[in-house]
Amino acid sequence: MGNEITLTTAVRSNLLTLQRTSTLVSKTQDRLASGLAVGSPIDGASAFFTAGALNNRADDFAALRNDVDLGISSVAAAIDGLDAITELVEQAKGLANNAKATGDTSEQSTLAVQFNDILSQIDDLANDASFNGTNLVKASADNLIIDFNEDASSTLTISGLDSTTASTGLNIANATNNFADTTAIDTAITAVNSAITELRSNASTLGSSASILQTRLDFGDNLIGTLQDGAGKLTLADLNKESANLLALQTRQQLGINSLALAAQSERSILALFG
């Protein structure tokens, strides 16, 4: 008991004020260092959990955004394939027209071989037009399903389009009778004309799907930004305000120290009177 120190009211009051100021300085410094006014539920439970929910949804949409972006690339690969196939079909049409124009059976036979080679290249190209394991133009083409929201209640299904020369696709048969008769050539010309029409229609369909995906991608980017901004409004600190607050607290802290020194000096002066 003899070692206990008795503080005067003035000294005790100054010490408590310094403690509170020191706590506020530490809190303000944390806000400036982290940039967060609400960094834990203690700082504001409602704001903290609401911001967490907004950030979680932003993260979910960011993951979906990547799938949409990959979907665009898959469709772009398919459209590139259709463009290349269309060029080959137009070349095949030119060969058939040349065969019809010439009366030389030897030349017709040569053109028929070239025609068949192009059909083979069309099939190879269709099989190569894949992206990330998805091929929308090969035989037995893949279907692409893109989710637009977290519970997959909003989706887009892009059906694959067989763009090979098979009967299930463009339906272009090899040159019959080596293009030695007009009927065989006309059959080939009719087939390639139909194929060109179908390819253009398929390219338009995939282009429309790509446009939808791009719109959803842009929407997703904007929504992610909006969600993150909303979370920031609830939790981010006003750095200018916090800086000014820190300066004021440090001034108050210095004044408190001076006041404590004066109180202690006054106490010693009084004790000296009894010495």
How would you describe this structure to a colleague?
By secondary structure, the protein is mostly helical. The chain contains five helices and four strands; from the N terminus they run H-H-H-E-E-E-E-H-H. The strands form two sheets. The chain has a two-stranded antiparallel sheet with strand order 1-2. Helix 2 packs antiparallel against helix 4. The longest helix is centred in the first third of the chain and has 57 residues, at 45-101. 28% of the residues are buried. The model has no long low-confidence stretch (mean pLDDT 92).
Keywords:
275 residues, mainly alpha, two-stranded antiparallel sheet, single chain, two-stranded antiparallel ribbon, rod-shaped, 5 helices
Briefly, what is this?
By secondary structure, the chain is mainly α.
Main beta sheet: strand number and arrangement? 2 strands, antiparallel
Order of helices and strands: HHHEEEEHH
Mean pLDDT equals: 92
Strand order of the largest sheet: 1-2
Work out the oligomeric state of the chains in this entry: single chain
Q: What separation lies between the terminal Cα atoms? A: 22 Å
**Shape category:** rod-shaped
Helix content: over 70%
Q: What gyration radius follows from the Cα positions, in whole Å?
A: 39 Å
Low-confidence stretches: none
Given the structure, what is the number of helices? 5
Strand content: under 5%
* Secondary structure category: mainly alpha
Say how many strands there are: 4
